[in-house]
């Protein structure tokens, strides 16, 4: 097993991203700051919630259509798992896809280190590698990790975190990374507003804890002084933009300071933390075709809540 930390852009610092976001109008923090060690654990807990349908629905799709999906990638033995987290989704496909090389990629190298040791012990026949990388900026550093034509796996509807323009850029880089292989990706579909909003604001408050933990992360990593008790979780479905939005709302007037600056927030002001765009099957299929993918196929569940797409990246 090998582990390595890669830097997406040595000339661009996390501090610059953080400061730019807080000084923007409206202010925001990039979603990559969700994923410190605790944030990764909290997101794993979210996937277990009954209100959060994407994970279990995606698993059901893989279970129902595993043989057909495997046929799309016959002969490919390398799997690159973007945003691997606890690696459970990829591990469920190891035998189906007959994987010989597995590369787990996540922004939190600490979380990967904890996870991959157990994974390697369970699958000694597979070459397991872990890469710490903020791939929201670029996938180019991963080229050195590619074991020939590969299946690039991006499950869980994480593609929804990107804007439409960012999605095009990201999928173009994925096609190059696959190196003649293919793409296997989970995409959340447009559906009833009530179902969507409950999935991002669960009664137990796990999603709220995940959102608020971002503040603790930037306090520690960026030298900020957020007080979690000053903020509350807010999420809603923006029908015009076809996306869930997550925000933190100031409970009172506060002045947030960090190493090189500060900003005042009035009571009720919002700090934007995440978008999750929802797609239709025709729209996402068309996008993949426009970007040069071929043999695009989609599998969905009986309620048409979620879709798994496969495509060749020739």
How is this structure best summarized?
This protein has 314 residues and is α/β, with parallel strands linked by helices.
Please name the defining characteristics of this protein.
314 residues, alpha/beta, Rossmann fold, eight-stranded mixed β-sheet, 10 helices, 13 strands, globular
Element layout with pairings:
Blueprint: E1 2-5, H1 14-23, H2 37-46, H3 53-72, E2 78-82, H4 88-91, H5 94-97, E3 101-106, H6 109-122, E4 127-132, E5 150-154, H7 164-178, E6 182-188, H8 193-199, H9 206-222, E7 231-238, E8 243-250, E9 254-258, E10 261-265, E11 270-277, H10 281-290, E12 294-300, E13 306-312
Parallel strand pairs: 1-4, 2-3, 2-5, 3-4, 5-6
Antiparallel strand pairs: 6-13, 7-8, 8-11, 9-10, 12-13
Helix pairs in contact: 2-9
């Amino acid at each position: 097993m090998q582990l390595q930390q890669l830097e997406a852009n040595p000339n661009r610092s996390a501090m610059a991203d953080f400061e730019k976001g807080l000084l923007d109008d409206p202010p925001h923090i990039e979603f990559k700051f969700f994923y410190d060690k605790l944030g990764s654990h909290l997101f794993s807990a979210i996937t277990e919630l009954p209100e959060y349908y994407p994970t279990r629905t995606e698993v059901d799709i893989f279970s129902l259509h595993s043989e057909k999906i495997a046929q799309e990638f016959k002969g490919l033995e390398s799997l690159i798992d973007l945003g691997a987290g606890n690696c459970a989704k990829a591990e469920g496909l190891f035998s189906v896809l007959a994987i010989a090389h597995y590369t787990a990629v996540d922004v939190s190298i600490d979380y990967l280190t904890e996870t991959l040791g157990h994974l390697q012990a369970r699958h000694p026949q597979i070459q397991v590698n872990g890469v710490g990388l903020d791939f929201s900026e670029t996938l180019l550093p991963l080229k050195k990790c590619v074991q020939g034509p590969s299946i690039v796996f991006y499950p869980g509807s994480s593609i929804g975190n990107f804007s439409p323009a960012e999605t095009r850029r990201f999928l173009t880089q994925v096609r190059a990374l696959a190196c003649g292989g293919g793409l296997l990706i989970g995409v959340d579909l447009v559906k009833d507003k009530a179902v969507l909003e409950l999935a991002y604001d669960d009664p137990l408050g796990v999603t709220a804890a995940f959102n608020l933990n971002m503040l603790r992360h930037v306090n520690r990593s960026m030298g900020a002084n957020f007080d979690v008790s000053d903020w509350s979780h807010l999420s809603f479905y923006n029908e015009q933009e076809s996306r869930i939005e997550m925000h933190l709302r100031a409970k009172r007037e506060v002045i947030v300071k960090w190493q090189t600056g500060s900003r005042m927030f009035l009571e009720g002001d919002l700090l934007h933390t995440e978008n999750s765009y929802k797609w239709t099957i025709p729209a996402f299929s068309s996008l993949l075709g426009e970007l040069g993918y071929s043999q695009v196929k989609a599998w969905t569940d009986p309620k048409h809540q979620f879709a798994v797409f496969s495509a060749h990246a020739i």
